[in-house]
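Ticket reopened. Same input as before:
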Amino acid sequence: MYAFDIERPATVADAVAALANEDAQALGGGQTLIPTLKARLASPEKLISLTGIAEMQGISSQDGTLRIGGGTNHATVASETGAIYPALAELASHIGDPAVRNRGTIGGSIANNDPAACYPAAALASGATITTNNRDIAADDYFQGMFTTALDEGEIVTAVTFPIPEKAHYEKFVQPASRFALVGVYVAKFADGVRVAVTGASNEGVHRWTEAEDALSANFSADALADLTVSADDLISDLHGSAEYRAHLVKVMTGRAVSKAK
Amino acid sequence: MPKDGGIGAATTRREDVRFLTGTGKYTDDIQTHAECAAVFARSTVAHGIIKSIDTSAAADMPGVLAIFTGEDFVEVGGNPAGWLINSRDGEPMKEPKRPVLAHGKVRHVGDAYAAVIAETVQQARDAAEMIEADIEELPAITNMKDALAGDNFVHDEIGTNQCFDWGWIEDNRAATDEAIKNAHHVTTLELVNNRLVPNAMEPRSSIGSYHPGTGDYTLHTTSQNPHLTRLLISAFVMGIPENKLTVIAPDVGGGFGSKIYHYGEEALVLAAAKKLGRTVKWTADRSEAFLTDAHGRDHLTKIELALDKDGNFLAFRTETHANVGAYLSNFATATPTFLHGTLMAGNYTVPLVYVNVKAVFTNTAPVDAYRGAGRPEATYSLERVIDMAAREIGRDPTDLRRQNFIKPDQYPYASAAGLEYDSGNYDALMDKMEEVSDKAGFAARRAESEAKGMLRGFGVNAYIEACGIAPSNLVGILGSRVGLYDAATVRVNATGNLSVMVGAHSHGQGHETVFPQVVAEMLGIDPQSIDIVHGDTSKIPFGMGTYGSRSLAVCGSAVVRATEKIINKAKKIAAHMLEAAEADIDFTDGEFSVAGTDKKVSFGEVALKAYIPHNFPLEDIEPGLEETAFYDPANFTYPSGAYCCEVEIDPETGKVRVDRMTAVDDFGNVINPMVVTGQVHGGLGQGIGQALLENTTYDENGQLLSASYMDYAMPRADDVPYYIVDHSQGNACTHNPLGVKGCGEAGAIGSPPTVVNAVIDAIQSGGINVTHIDMPVSPHRVWAAMNNAK
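Engineering reply: fixed in the latest deploy. New output:
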């Protein structure tokens, strides 16, 4: 690590003001940024901690949606959303390990948009709305490729609001070392159709599998996927699996997610 | 005293009190007044010429006290290899110098070319980044076979990348070739024994200090054998006299082999301490551990098994390329040769064995002994090719092994690979394994798995290993440059408690619990009154350290010999106290008595008398009660085992789950069954890690792709099953006083082939003709192999 200062604003407004300094960097739960700093791969002069902002904490539900404050950690989501949105609670309960779940936040995960993270798949498949300090962004517009989002400099994810599907499930095949998703597929069935989001697989980051959505909207069953194939083009090839293997897993995980959806 | 704390008692580990309550004291925990910090500048390229190193900007950074480069160590010696291997043509191995800091060239990513000493770690790190090294990158040498073909050399001065070309047993070469040529059936298997990163929980750390008034040096370091480190620094690297250098290895958080060796960082902190008159500390971060700890395994092997028409083994022929990395680490040349080739007859009455090993320099981290060291490589090759042969000729893998086992009435047995096995009963191990694993229930479990759409396989393995790495006579013949005995001093204090100074170092093995059990049993006293002292060259007579499952067999035997001397002297003192002839003194349950009388004195009374010798006949009895013994055994010990496991494979994803794992081992006599079980558990975990998960990968540029836990998969609790462990089938070692064989590495030796054999069995049960998958048997590899075979 290089030396840095840290500020702990109590309000979103104060955090936004602090982040106006171009050498400042927002710090959520630190599950990505702190290891990056320890490896001396980044050298912000000032970290603006978002974890002391009360208005970014907590979970509420109304009108068939679930609103999660951007500073809410995974353990809280896992323990408090089970009755309302069980698929999301289960996803949160399998992110990292207990230490990660007690520090990492949904806002941090969504803002970072790691191509193998879990939450982006949930947000995209659920058609969530990402709320920032100055606007609401639809998930379809928000995720723009690996580590790339619609966020502007200094913009903070203050909440994520999930429409609650009739049925949903997230099926993750873990990369054996990091236990991030080698391939993770989130399937969400709504009254007006099915949305399928894939994480871990693509060089483009989280993305929807529209052919599967069409097939599953017509027939919500794993059998509906039988004739579909996933192209390996643009999928990730690395130590842990080829693009072809990931393409295969996308289909397998999608089928399993459909079968387990509830 | 009751016997429940003596030999055979499953006493809980006393060292765990401090380890589990966070009160252990590791090297980095040691804080010295006015200590300063060392940080190394390490190469980011695998191979390059050091054109220049400009340290001027770094030297001006805040807090910087000194900067060292390879130039500063040109005059000092290199870190030597401990074993001299001769090639088949009689030529000695190539032994290029391994300097403290790289000089002239950098030879692997992580090779240190400079070190900064500053007031704080942070300052040293900042300054290290300001060192400007002009390094002309050269093509990296990473592939062993290419390395032997080209003219790009890791060490230009030796003009080759081949360290040696070794044959064992060379006199058997022609006969083995002939046997294979004429055999009824030959099974051939090419396999990779995957490179492993040791991943001790505690990274390496060293603290050097120097007393200008006396000229004494002290090195605190993460070592499995502080005496060897002192010897290497004194005799080879720095020339500090042994009486002026104390090496202390305090609590050490795991080693698995990687902390046997002397590393350049240890020499650097000593040199810096002398130059500055300050205490200098270095602690590796995890990235440095990945890049610079000596790695394990990394063999490319072709093995052939010749059988007659009845399934009798006629010959094993092996050709192995062994990666030694960029420099020779201390045991690097012994591991692929005498710890591997000599085991290539396995548990079998095969008459002919020939092993050819070519050791190859590459631009990768040095490779050396890692838990099992050569024996896992031997066992994996043998037990995979035997399994493959059984499938090829339509025999049950267990039956084929049993048919070729050495039988109990054949001991001592001279193996075709040159060792004399002292004892064993491999059929009894198999019988027990089949019983405790419920092999009979496998068919029903397979049916259950198949009903879920899963494939289930049963894998079996028999292993033998050579432990108690010692016999100086034998290892001398095999090329060791040192003897490999061990030593212990038993000091009986005046108040009757004991300090036992042992040459073996404990870093997870449980010596502090187990060694007192031996002494307590012999003296009939409370083991809690006995403490073990280890890891400090100023307190211990000598020691060759802990590796090769040698501590109890070798150092434990030295403890026995020293304790026998204590008993002999104590009898003299008791005879004097009881006014009896020494020959009439009985020693039982901690009491000395005169045969046929009720006259007796306790061990404690004798101890006190030894230090208050008011009326000793001083010509016959010296005051004090302290004895030292050095023990050098007659042979290796030969633990053996029968393992099995059941795996379940998800055919859609290729994911392998080890569902059941059974280890039945012959460790000879067992001193503490709980500690032994724990050692087996740890070994099994590492073996399953090698078989399924651990994948050390360098790319063609010599960059370590698996350089963090994001890409290097260590086994976690949910990757391993509940283990069934049995050591009821012990056959006592015939040549050490405790009859013990060694248990530290067995699990890591026996489990990898067991897992892979089970994977192949599972896949074939699905009608898919996959005959081999290289480790780690990752989901991707299983899926790809099954897909390709369809």
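The mean pLDDT of chain B is 96. Residues 221 and 574 of chain B are 43 Å apart (CA to CA). Please confirm and we'll close it.
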